[in-house]
Amino acid sequence: MTRRFLWLAILLLGSHLDLLAGPKVEIVTNVVSPSLEHTAAEELAGHLRRLYQAEVSLAGTPSDPGAHVIFVGSPSSNPETRDWSASWPKLSDQGHCLKTVNFRGQPALLVGGETPAATFWAVSELAHRLGIRSLLYGDLDPATPPAFKLTGYDVVREPQLRSRAWRTIDDFPIGQESWGLQEQKQVVKQLAKQKYNRLLLSVHSWQPFVDFEFGGVKKQTGVLWYGLQYPVGANTAGRSAFAGAKLFENPDFTGRKTYQERIEAGTALLQGIIKYAHEMGMTVGLVMSPLEFPKEFFTTMPQAKLLRGENELSIGPGPLQMADDEVLMQIAKTQLRAYLGTYPEVDAVYLSLPKKLEWSEHAESSW
Question: Which H or E run contains 260?
Answer without folding.
Answer: helix 259-279
